[in-house]
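ugh ok so i messed up the first submission bc i forgot one of the chains. this is the corrected input, ALL of the components this time, i swear. 890 residues overall. if the numbers dont match what u have on ur side tell me asap before i send this to the collaborators (the ones from the other lab, u know who)
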Amino acid sequence: MNRPAHWDESGSVEFVSFVAGGQSFCIEITQIREIRRWTPVTALPHADSAVLGVINLRGAVIPIVDLAQQLGLGTSEATVRHVVIVVAIGTQTVGLLVDSVSEILAVAVDTICDAPPMSKGVDSDCIIGLVSVEDEMSRVLALDAVLPRALEDVA
Amino acid sequence: MSADNLKAMFFVECEELLESLGEGLQTMEDGEADSETLHAIFRAVHSIKGTAGAFGFDTLVTFTHHYETVLDLIRSDQLEADGDILRLLLRSSDILADLVELARSEDSGRPEAMDSVLESLIEISKHHGDDPGEDEAQSADVDLTFEPVAFSPLSLDDGPPAGALRYRIRFEPGTSFFRNGHDLGQILAELEKAGPVTVTADSATLPLLSDFDPGECHLAWDIEIETEATEAELLDAFMFLEEFCKVSELGPVAGGLPDLGGGLPDLDPLPEAAPAAELPAEPAAPEPEAPSPPRKTDPGRAAPEPAAAEPQKRADPAGATGGATPKQPMLRVDPERVDRLINTVGELIINQAVISQRIVEAGFDSNSDLMGDLDDFQHLAREIQEGVMAIRAQPVKPLFQRMQRIVRETVDALGKDVTLVTEGENTEVDKTLVERLADPLTHMIRNAVDHGIERREIRAQAGKPEKGTIRLAAAHRSGHVQIEISDDGAGVNRPRVFEKAVEKGLIPADAKLSDGEIDNLLFMPGFSTAAEVTNLSGRGVGMDVVKTAISALGGRVAISSMPGKGTTFTISMPLTLAVMDGMVVHICGETMVVPLASIVETIRPRPDDIKPIGRDGRLLFIRGTYVPIASLSRMLGLLRQGGDSDGGVFVLVRSESDDLVALAVDDISDQRQVVIKSLEGNYGAIPGISAATILGDGRVALIIDTEAILSQVRRAGAEAAQHKEMFHEQASALG
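and heres the new structure output, hopefully the right one now
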């Protein structure tokens, strides 16, 4: 699996781990702009079903993507208990709807396992590594592989 | 300040200077040039040359040098600026603009036509410049690389210098001379090139040792030089320090002409200078500030003006302003700062809306003081916003000047005879719009010359003046800016357009189109009408690219054409890209905004006025006409719970092409100014939606793209028609 170039084999990386569609995922902390409470969205016409709509983030209009649905893990029925992780992908700012945010992990790069080739039904492009957290496993998301599909279709 | 900053400033200056150059040449072309115009032109070129030399832009220096020489000949009445010369001057200004552009991009290339133009310039200066110093200076510029100092052979208007003269230059550079990094040695070395120099240091102001600061300069110098060079040339050696110099002429070295006519106004007549400046009427040493009497004796010449202009240039060593007429000082601001301010003001407007909404919700009486204060706040916020927008506003003049150039180039390439008449050049538009309009306008102007204006012979046959005219006009129209490009050419060749559209499969061969519809075919993608593909236009990207570019700016373009009379394209654009007036509507529980500019009226019709048509079409009967109804909820895919919720209120909108459509909405709540937020940055374009905005409650509302909705309605109609035809064909095939 292709690891990001800035991962230094001898160093460590910080992740934010969270739950979406019942599974644990993590995103590198440097890609995250902020974490906020779910607020109602304005629906967009002709949008992919995983794109819930847009919200106002201090004057910028950003789309909100249901991450679980985007990963094929079923739809989330957003409530006030849900959380939006605002991430930056290139020049785009996008909000990801997730169930809850768990913790910040500092992981030594050499302990990150490559994701094994997977059986069908799993989109392995989206996962660039696996991190063990105590007894649990968290999946490292490749944001640029996860999101453009939802956002580019319309353009 | 770093060298890069200085360079950036140089290019900003160049832009201004090129603009005043273009303006001046335009005035000359119109035959309204006075000597002041000529000086402004000369100064612009001269200033570019001076600073370009300091930065080592050699090509630029060489070119401006020859350009300036010719301009100087015109300025001193040695050369008549007739048609050919004027054309050469215009071409030269185009090349100068190219050169500046190349220098900016640090490209060492040369504009294609430069060599031939340069040759013509040199040719002219050779023929007319009977100045002995001329050739010398020209050969000098070949070996000199980046010292512009010796390149100014004719900066003065006293004609050819009469032999060698003695000058005294009093140079008092002030205490910061060394600290600013200047070097007297270099200046003197430069002066010595012009002739033998005698230097005397004046240590009169040297302080006592206890007060002496070795970093400061307390000296002054008296420099005497015998030279054939003119005063201006000498001063060139003092680049950027001219203001510290006082030059006095001490008279001829050996038997030159004693009467030097229009003596220099800023001469500092030392007693020894008197013989030179003296006139019979004024035997006594003239007063230092009395330059006019000698000039009065010489009223026929243009000399007074240039003489007056010279000291002004000296006071402004970098030549930054380029115009002698008192210009209001301009503020140069980093555009990013303005953008930040605009964003903040946008937030302020949203915030103000939020507060208003909260206060209304809190149940305050509408007559209460608080509501009055709130109104004031709203008023102020709007005023600030308008003020900030005005900072970004720029006249379209530079854009129009560029179009002059496009016309010149196109005309040259096609051998047609066309003038571009511009109107409303001072109409102000948002800076971004000015910049982004350049490409579409260029394309349209080229089209107008190439396809619009007929060849000379044909025009003559049609009884039109041989010279074609293209009119480019800008004006403000109710919150919009309107730009019209009209030509007096042949008009749209409708049969040809129709034929071509059929050929390209854009329309069925038996389609019945109105004249307006045929004209609008020009905007269809992939349509190019030129019978022969020229290298100027007709690269297959025709007017549809123009239309797309203008739509991207929130504008509309329309065409109207009269066979044999000409074609007019009308571009209508919002004044700014940041704010607009909109009507807040509700559709299926969503709040949306319809641009107020396109709304004709809102109506709540009687049920009988809505007539069904076809399977699911509906028409609204209003004052004797039927208008198609667009169900926004269906078109935007908002009908999630099913059921047709619309039918409450209709918003009648009119397109640029004058079509009407009734948008069905549930409810109308408000009319307000909204701040436009792009969706494309973080998401992408959505059909039927032009942008988003943020409402008083902090929620995002989408802005409806009425034009897109209209074309969707039109397309749906066309598809239905095709569908019907297919059905008929199938039926007949079966039958």
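quick check: The CA atoms of residues 87 and 93 of chain A lie 6 Å apart. that seems consistent at least. Chain A has a mean pLDDT of 83.
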